[in-house]
Design a protein that fits this description.
79 residues; mainly alpha; 85% helix
Length: 79
């Protein structure tokens, strides 16, 4: 069995640089995935809020029309 060559300080430094590069790439990928997911969630929530606001606006318009009709009935003078 042959003895392995001893690890030099240069080898350790190269390994350290490679490890840092790999971890940096991994962290960037995780960050990108998280941001993409949050963006998709935000778009869905914005669409939901828009739909609620449109529906609320329609209800308010109908309520205003009913209030006007009731006011007209209440303020009508008897013949």
């Amino acid at each position: 069995m042959a003895d392995a060559d001893p690890i030099t300080k240069k080898d350790l430094e190269e390994l350290k640089v490679a490890l840092i590069d790999s971890l940096t790439e991994l962290i960037r990928n995780v960050e990108t995935n998280l941001l993409t997911s949050f963006h998709g969630y935000g778009k869905g929530q914005a669409a939901r809020m828009h739909a609620l606001e449109v529906g609320d606006s329609a209800v308010n318009q109908r309520l205003d029309a009913l209030e006007q009709r009731v006011l007209n009935l209440e303020t009508r003078r008897p013949h």
